[in-house]
## 1
Amino acid sequence: MEISEKRIIGSLILLVGVTFFSIALYSGQLTLIAEIVESIFEPAIAGIP
């Protein structure tokens, strides 16, 4: 895969992420997403002294 193809794929993934973020922000679901992310990273944070 050439570098230009990788850039296009990376740009599309970034665009999808920004789109889902804006939809979550518009629909008021951002707090739910923040809680899900927090619960995912909670075990990793608990191990830090």
## 2
Amino acid sequence: MSNKITFVFISACLLILNNCSFTSQSRSKSPHFDGSLKFSGEAIENAKIILSLSANDKLCLKGKKFTTTNAQGEFSLKAATEEYTYTPFVNYALDEWTLCAIYNEQTYTLYSNNRYGSGNVTGSIFLECDLALNPVNKPCVVSH
């Protein structure tokens, strides 16, 4: 009798997990970005802003989302999202993102980070960037 109860319990658990795993959901893979872009204190208009979600893509060559700066050098880029199938207890992922700018035919890495976890990447990042101050390492002041 105990083997039948165990079998029924295991079958019920597998059925529940199987049904849950086919639930498609949308999740954020990056934060939301806002910022301003300058060169020697002057606003940069029409600079291309690129978000890459690929590992070690420091120049955003595999960009997934794009925007441009306005006349005041400001930009806004919503979080990148993906559709995925939720599976209980097995839904952890490594999310990586890099934000770049192209100005005068040169690519600048503005911000890069990652997160290992489940569910959505939350939050927003505000960047104040002056490409002339320190274009190689960290041209931006980051706030949340």
## 3
Amino acid sequence: MNACAEAFAALLESKGLQYQSGVDKDGDSVIDFPYNGKVTKCFFAGEDGAYFSLYQVYERIPEDKYADLLFLCNELNCRYKWATFYVDGDRDLVIHDDALLTVDTAADEAFELLVRIIKIVDDVKPAVMKAIYA
């Protein structure tokens, strides 16, 4: 793993949190963080892993609800300016965020962003479930 990912993994370890780590086919360090039945994938790329990107595949979207979810994504993108909501090519609702890290602050910054994304996911759950199942 690269330096930023190692620092983040050490912080998770120190807090007693479960995670899985590895390296993807591009050589980027990946840390999977499970929470509440979902997994947030954290990628550390570039020199020392300074380019941080996290993704959570939230829910598969039924074909007949695709348009409803696109409208919801637009609303959520306006409400949560630094997180991105979109429906990917597999019709999955994805929540995404990017940041540039430094080795000295990578662990704390990555953890803060992870916590924020998890909180946002919890906050938007009622709207997402309504759009999919109503």
